[in-house]
């Protein structure tokens, strides 16, 4: 929250500085320059939107474990899914090692992903050490599977 407030104050200071610079008379002029107020409006609106997004992000950070777990679930799923699609499209030219990893992931990843989703739901409900540990165990399992997919893709050796 403090970071969000700091960001808001920084953006307000930037906006104020821009406004003040526009109000200073140019060299040889007696008064402030004639700049329409609408030229500063987009800058201020952008600053306000950015500050709002920062504050919204800070407000949701209380559930950091849950949020980071959801990101880890999505990342591991996308990694494995992309690997399996690539392997399926190139199966006839890939080594037996790569196809074996893909076949293993096709059978083991879905139940592991479901288990991680259930562990995440349990953690969100209980928010205790036991559910936290179970969630981290499932996430480590999924990360290991995503790592196996990445390593197999790096082996692109043909038979």
Main sheet properties: none
Proportion of β residues?
under 5%
Give the overall pLDDT as a whole number. 76
Order of helices and strands: HHHHH
- Class from secondary-structure proportions: mainly alpha
| Oligomer description | single chain
| Shape field | elongated
- Radius of gyration over C-alpha positions, nearest whole angstrom: 26 Å
Number of strands: 0
Query: Can you give the helix content as a percent range?
Result: over 70%
Per DSSP, the total helix count is 5
Distance between the termini: 56 Å
Contiguous uncertain segments of 5+ residues:
35-47, 57-62
Task: Please outline what is shown here.
With 159 residues, this protein is mainly alpha-helical. Helix content is 79%, strand content 0%.
Task: Describe this protein with a few key phrases.
mainly alpha; 5 helices; 0% strand
Structure write-up:
By secondary structure, this protein is mainly alpha-helical. The chain is 79% helix and 0% strand. It is built from five helices and no strands. It has helices spanning 2-23, 41-59, 64-90, 96-126, 129-154. The model is unreliable at 35-47 and 57-62 (pLDDT under 50).
Layout of helices and strands, plus pairs?
Layout: H1 2-23, H2 41-59, H3 64-90, H4 96-126, H5 129-154
Helix pairs in contact: 1-2, 3-4, 3-5, 4-5
